[in-house]
Write a structure and sequence with these properties.
The complex is a heterodimer.
Chain A (H helix, E strand, L loop, with lengths): L3 E6 L6 H10 L3 E6 H6 L9 E4 L13 H10 L1 H9 L4 E4 L1 H9 L18 E3 L7 E9 L13 E8 L3 E3 L3 H9 L5 E3 L28 E5 L5 E4 L15 H4 L17 H13 L2
Parallel strand pairs in A: 1-2, 1-3, 3-4, 4-11
Antiparallel strand pairs in A: 5-8, 6-7, 6-9, 9-10, 10-11
Chain B lengths: L2 E8 L8 H14 L5 E11 L4 H6 L1 H4 L6 E5 L15 E7 L6 H13 L7 E11 L7 H8 L5 E6 L1 H5 L28 H10 L6 H10 L3 H10 L8 H10 L2 H4 L6 E6 L4 E6 L1 H14 L5 E3 L6 E4 L4 E9 L1 H6 L1 H17 L6 E11 L15 H19 L3 E8 L8 E11 L18 E6 L9 H5 L17 H16 L5 E4 L4 H13 L2 E4 L12 H6 L5 E6 L4 H10 L4 E7 L4 E6 L2 E7 H6 L5 E6 L15 H10 L7 H4 L10 E3 L2 E2 L5 E2 L3 E3 L8 E7 L9 H19 L6 E8 L12 H22 L3 E7 L3 E2 L6 E2 L3 E10 L16 E5 L10 H8 L16 H16 L5 E4 L4 H13 L2 E5 L8 H6 L6 E5 L4 H7 L5 E8 L3 E6 L2 E7 H10 L9
Parallel strand pairs in B: 7-22, 12-13, 17-20, 28-29, 35-38
Antiparallel strand pairs in B: 1-2, 1-3, 2-5, 4-5, 4-6, 7-8, 9-10, 10-11, 11-14, 12-14, 15-18, 15-19, 16-18, 17-19, 20-21, 23-26, 24-25, 26-27, 27-32, 28-32, 30-31, 33-36, 33-37, 34-36, 35-37, 38-39
Classes of the chains: A alpha/beta, B alpha+beta.
């Protein structure tokens, strides 16, 4: 049976269509489910294998991005989310979804425990530039990370599209702790560095780091590696024709299928989660 | 109700910043050269509710303050706490005026309800406080406050240096809206002479002329009408205020396009022509499109709906609409522009049975951002207009989840008087719904129930349509200004698309200009009648009078009709999405627009009179070509320096700072983005999207605009705009055999009057523009499927009057067979061969180089030959061949030649590729060096072809003007020669720096 993905939408989430599409492209079935359907009991989270919280502007980002949506989930879906995580089911939050997961406390989550306590430990603040920007960045993944979403991935280019993506924790001890458990899964890197050697704790200048994130953090996972969130948009490079350079170095010639030779680097991330669900059945 | 004040400020500490304060600091430096060492910010919330302050304080970090990066306090001005050490030199607090949309406040109220569900009537208002440290004593704090707020919609409190030293801090109170007084409908006596009729129109802001007032007067003198009115118990022999307002809205220039529908007596002193044109719209726009509709099967719906619809493939149809929001944007750039973009999104939602908006376009015309001259009263500095308009469109588009894929920003001094804010949206819908109905056809029946969906009706937005049909004056009403609420609209969009797919919608349209009177009034034409009960309409505040409810243009509302048996399902869907949906009317077949307030009939107008009763305008038009001092370039020039200076011109300079703040990639479909090339900072010619995930079938979206050509001939201006839109689209790989256009005319008032003595000339400009539009569109087989006009773009009167240059924005959307075979403007590889497709002529009139040199006093004027489109039919064939070369993969590099001619186009191609080129412009056309290097002749595209594809390319282009220009090189310079003559040499990084500097305006990131 195909893994089933719940893609949340409503209240200003706006990447729900493409998030559903990328899961389907890697062999899952995906439903766009309005948040209120879970809250009203009209749909049951437990019937799904994967939960995706897509990007967008839930509640207009007012009072801090992701906060109001985070509260709705924290208060009205707490038990269902707790059970979902404890059952070892993967969750991803992208952009606004990442902000939601951080503000519900699901990321980074309690140290060394698979049971969420819904305590907020980090935050995402306004970009140092003060501007919302859509620009492409280069990312590198921690090969030692327990994150099931990023297995085998090294470097990827994809867009960021946010005004509040600066990852912040109260002290460097907090960041050290996450680093030691390889939860700093993905960072902004300088594309001129050799592949695999880009990750650094030293602050990269704007726009290599688009937001001034501490230690150039682009995304983190919880201690189990099942819950993962990131500011950049991997779904936005599901096909190479979405890469800004495809007229410069796109694949030629074309195969029979539209995606043959044109699969984008971002798709692997979603395939990893779907494969994880399949292999753990 | 008790009020609780919550104040929040960013924490200080390593790695923490007060970004809101930083932004204010940087903008003061960038716009005014005022340097303030430190600005700190406070976000304030005023909670009006039953929940005790202590309870709110306990939960402060759950809602108002982020526990990691913020700190706050309840019922405490933070400036009095240890969070703020040191004495600021000025403190300014800004909040909204009562009744103005406060989106953060609305969101806070929603979040408050999550925490305190029992406090149902609580409301929240917000404000922001800025504390300035190290402010120079020379800075006037009132001026400073003026840069931070717009007093039409916001209020500010100030603590100056003395107040700061005495620790007297400003504290805004809750903005309680004034009580609205309900006024029962009044009869409006029209039994008076013409002068009094005119007075009634002027005093009531009705914007109706004497003939129109007479037509209304005559209606109420008709005995049959009087008898029918008597029967329903409404005043028989005079209109009610509700009716008069309703007619004024429906008959406004904004809604009825009276100038485009007028009968024009046109005299051309150049040719001796003396003729009568019965409706520019029918003659030059509608008829050509209907003729083309006979030849193709993909024109599904043109002109009559909220946007034009074409079949894209067997499964999907696509539609597009563009609107202007000029007057509101002049008064409040932020709110005016935001309502512009979310408003045109609703036109897409209201097309057919509902389409999904998938791409936005934004084109702005402003005064120069570096303007140093005088500003007339009540006008904002162009840089402020730019910032405000941009922010409004950014927030409106981004929060709605619709990518902004194409646009332009144009500068001219005259747009100081009235900025132009064009917003466009492309939509998509399944060709047929699951119940078998074609989605582009509305299917209402008498008996269907009409819902108002989304936002509520308020005092904001009364008289928008009539106001925009008047010129801007000091007395322009502030109630015409609104702020959009994208999240309310997004929720409504989600809900409406589900309702459409479930087959619940029989008819839908948006509430824009004219409010319910227009939306229900227009839909009632389908069934020939409706009955509205205004008492059912949910209000933002009690006390609105019936006429206000009927014509208010409050935002975020759609009008949707459903069958009676579907009401429960429809309402349940609205509940799920937390969208308000209220049944307010029923369709009938009585022939009447029947409006009640409870049981009392307050308006009773025949549908036919409402929609067709407006008398046709009779206008005079007279053409004498304007005389412009001739542009004669200097005999010698340093073209390298000129190139740098041209790249810095606001009209040519990179708009990246601004465009990058739009989300141009949401929906994961944008295959050609606004910026291209190695460093993703070269100009994109047109947007390309592939909206069906996994399928590379694409849509091209482009635009053309050339307002300054109107200084010589508005006809040439129109032709240039259309050709530019087509060229831009061809450059990325448009299929020229499936393209459709939108004409958006923005004109100064072209009706001769005391205020407009040159009205005949301005109308003649409109005639010429329309004639060229028809000629070029017929030749290009390019049907106009939708359009709009805005005809009163003037400021002031007498010698100080500012009229915009007549401006046509031509937007284009068309088919792209496979986005994997596209081209972009950036040079790709050394060795690629550069060609000019098209021919240069000696056409420097109204060119950017002419403007630059004449502004600097190095040339006498801008006059001369303006670019002409002599043989569009042959251009089309050339474009088709070039598109084929792109689709076959021979060409990956193509760039449109427009402002600044070949020199600027080549510079931009080098910047995009961060690579050099050697070019010889000998043999590219008939002009002299200036004409061939800087001239803006139409029909030209520069392409680069890998050597391996050169012969295939040339074979395809055989018989079409295609001239070798040179080669892309590994060097870092662009070198241009004219045969033996060296013209210019310019380093690519230096060109990039010049091109990107002018409009950066960020003040850096420090």
């Amino acid at each position: 049976m195909q893994p089933k993905v719940a893609v949340l939408f409503g209240f200003g989430i706006n990447c729900d269509h493409e998030t559903k599409a990328v899961f389907e492209l890697v062999g899952a079935t995906a439903d766009r489910i309005h948040v209120n359907r879970f809250i009203d009991g009209d749909a049951a989270l437990e019937t799904y294998d994967i939960l995706a919280v897509p990007g967008g502007f839930s509640f207009g980002d007012h009072l801090g991005s992701g906060r109001l949506m985070g509260n709705r989930m924290r208060y009205a879906m707490r038990d269902a989310l707790q059970a979902f995580v404890e059952a070892g089911k993967p969750i991803i939050g992208i952009c606004n979804g990442f902000q939601v997961l951080v503000k519900t406390g699901l990321l980074p989550g309690p140290e060394g425990s698979a049971s969420p306590d819904f305590i907020q430990r980090g935050s995402l603040g306004l970009n140092d530039s003060g501007r919302y920007e859509d620009r492409w960045v280069t990312l590198e993944f921690d090969p030692e990370s327990p994150c099931i979403w990023t297995k085998g991935m090294t470097r990827m280019e994809c867009p960021v599209r946010h005004g509040e993506g600066k990852y912040i924790m109260p002290s460097s001890d907090d960041l050290d702790r996450l680093a030691s458990s390889n939860q700093l899964t993905v960072r902004y890197v300088d594309p001129d560095t050799p592949v695999g050697e880009g990750r650094t704790d030293a602050q990269l200048p704007y726009p290599l780091s688009p937001n001034g994130s501490m230690r150039n953090i682009a995304g983190i996972c919880d201690s189990t590696g099942l819950v993962f969130g990131l500011m950049p948009h991997p779904e936005a490079i599901y096909a190479q024709w979405l890469h800004p350079h495809h007229t410069r170095d796109g694949a030629q010639p074309h195969g029979a299928g539209a995606m043959d030779g044109w699969e984008g680097e971002g798709l692997q991330l979603f395939r990893n989660a779907v494969e994880h669900v399949r292999s753990n059945r | 109700m008790p009020m609780t004040r919550v104040e929040v400020t960013p924490r200080q500490g390593e790695g923490m910043r007060d970004v809101r304060g930083d932004v204010v600091r940087r903008q003061l430096a960038a716009d005014h050269n005022v340097n303030v060492p430190e600005v700190r910010s406070v976000y304030g919330f005023l909670v009006n509710g039953e929940t005790p302050s202590e309870t709110i304080a306990e939960r402060m970090n759950d809602l108002f303050a982020d526990p990691i990066i913020e700190q706050g306090a309840v019922n405490t001005i933070l400036l009095t706490t240890e969070m703020f050490s040191g004495t600021p030199d000025a403190v300014i607090t800004v909040g909204f005026k009562p009744g103005v949309t406060d989106n953060p406040g609305k969101a806070a109220k929603d979040g408050f309800t999550t925490l305190f569900p029992e406090d149902t009537d609580a409301t929240v208002a917000t404000y922001q406080t800025y504390a300035f440290y190290g402010l120079s004593a020379e800075i006037d704090v009132h001026w400073l406050a003026g840069t931070l707020h717009n007093n039409l919609i916001q209020r500010a409190l100030i603590a100056d240096k003395a107040a700061c030293e005495q620790q007297v801090w400003p504290a805004l109170d809750y903005p309680t809206p004034p009580e609205q007084v309900f006024i029962a409908p009044q009869p409006m006596d029209l039994e008076c002479d013409d002068a009094s009729l005119e007075e009634i129109s002027v005093n009531g802001l009705l914007a109706l002329n004497v003939e129109e007032m007479q037509a209304i007067q005559a209606h109420y003198r008709d005995d049959t009408i009087r008898a029918s009115r008597e029967a329903v118990g409404i005043v028989p022999n005079a209109p009610t205020d509700v009716e008069l307002e309703c007619l004024a809205q429906t008959w406004s220039e904004h809604c009825k396009h009276k100038i485009f529908a007028s009968k024009i007596h046109h005299i051309d002193h150049e040719t001796g022509e003396d003729t009568v044109i019965d409706s520019l719209f029918k003659t030059h726009i509608m008829t050509p499109t209907h003729d083309m509709q006979n030849d193709v099967d993909w024109l599904l719906s043109v002109f009559h709906d909220n946007s034009g619809v074409i079949a894209w493939d067997d499964t999907w149809s696509i539609c597009m609409k563009a609107e202007t929001h000029n007057s509101p944007s002049a008064l409040d750039p932020y709110g005016g522009a935001m309502t512009g973009i979310v408003g045109v999104n609703r036109d897409i939602m209201g097309t057919g049975l509902g389409a999904r908006p998938i791409a936005n376009t934004d084109v702005f015309c402003f005064g120069p951002p570096n303007w140093e001259g005088d500003l007339p009263d009540n006008l904002f500095h162009p840089s402020r207009v730019l910032r405000g308009v941009h922010a409004g469109v950014r927030v409106g588009g981004n929060e709605s989840g619709i990518p902004t894929v194409n646009g332009a920003i144009v500068f001219d001094d005259r747009y100081i008087g009235k900025p132009l804010v064009y917003c466009g949206t492309v939509g998509i819908m399944p060709r047929t719904l699951q119940d078998g109905r074609p989605s582009h056809i509305k299917t209402p029946l008498a008996g269907d129930i009409v819902y108002m969906v989304g936002g509520r009706v308020g005092y904001d937005g009364i008289h928008g349509a009539t106001f925009s049909s008047l010129e801007l004056t000091e007395e322009s009403p502030s109630s015409a200004v609104q702020i959009g609420d994208p999240i309310t609209q997004k929720k409504m969009l989600d809900m409406i698309l589900e309702a459409r797919d479930e087959g619940l919608i029989t008819c839908i349209t948006d509430n824009g200009a004219g409010g319910l009177s227009s939306s229900i009034g227009e839909m009632a034409e389908y069934t020939n009648g409706c009955e509205i009960d205004l008492a059912q309409v949910p209000l933002k505040q009690a006390g609105l009078s019936p006429w206000e409810i009927l014509v208010s243009e409050s935002q975020e509302r759609m009008t949707v009709a459903v069958k009676p048996e579907d009401q429960a399902t429809f309402e349940a869907l609205a509940d799920l999405h937390e969208v308000e949906a209220t049944a307010v009317a029923t369709f009938t077949s009585t022939g009447m627009f029947h409006v009640r307030y409870d049981e009392t009939t307050v308006a009773y107008l025949p549908i036919e009179f409402l929609h067709d009763g407006v008398p046709q305008l009779q206008l005079e038009s007279e053409w004498t070509p304007p005389t412009q001092p001739l542009f004669q370039p200097p005999s010698t020039a340093d073209h390298s320096t000129l190139l740098t200076e041209m790249l810095q011109r606001p009209n040519i300079a990179s708009k990246e700072t601004w465009v990058r703040q739009y989300d141009h990639e949401v929906i994961a479909q944008t295959a050609i983005k606004p910026f291209v090339g190695v460093k993703r900072d070269g100009p994109g010619d047109a947007g390309v999207i592939a909206p069906i995930h996994g399928d590379p079938h694409g849509i091209v979206i482009s635009c053309g605009i050339a307002p300054r050509y109107s200084d010589i001939d508005a006809g040439a201006m129109a032709a240039a705009a259309i050709d530019e839109a087509v060229r831009n689209a061809v450059c990325v790989g448009l299929d020229v055999d499936k393209m459709a256009g939108l004409d958006n005319f923005c004109w100064p008032d072209p009706i001769e009057s005391v205020k407009t003595p040159d009205g005949r000339f301005k109308l003649a400009q409109l005639v010429r523009a329309n004639r060229e539009l028809e000629r070029v569109c017929r030749a290009y087989r390019l049907p106009c499927v939708s359009g709009k006009d805005s005809m009163k773009n003037d400021y002031g009167s007498g010698p100080d009057k500012i009229s915009i240059p007549p401006t046509l924005l031509f937007s284009l959307f068309g088919d792209h067979p496979d986005v994997r075979f596209s081209a972009t403007s950036d040079f790709k590889r050394a060795g690629d061969r550069i060609y000019l497709v098209g021919t240069s002529h000696q056409e420097l009139g109204a060119s950017e180089i002419a403007y630059m040199l004449s502004e600097r006093g190095e040339a006498e004027g801008i006059g001369g030959e303006v670019p002409q489109l002599l043989d569009p039919a042959s251009n089309l064939n050339t474009y088709r061949q070039l598109s084929t070369a792109i689709h076959k993969g021979f060409v990956k590099t193509a760039h449109d030649c427009s402002e600044g001619g070949i020199a600027v186009a080549l510079a931009e191609m080098c910047i995009g590729g961060r690579i050099g080129a050697e070019v010889d412009i000998d043999g590219t056309g008939t002009g002299d060096v200036w004409g061939r290097l800087w001239g803006e002749s139409l029909g030209r595209i520069i392409v680069a072809v890998p050597e391996a594809n050169e012969s295939d390319f040339l074979a395809l282009m055989k018989g079409h003007p295609t001239t070798i220009l040179g080669t892309v090189t590994d060097a870092s310079d662009l070198i241009i020669t004219d045969g033996e003559d060296h013209l210019l040499k310019s380093d690519v990084e230096r060109m990039a720096e010049a091109w990107k500097g002018t409009l950066d305006m960020t003040g850096g990131v420090a």
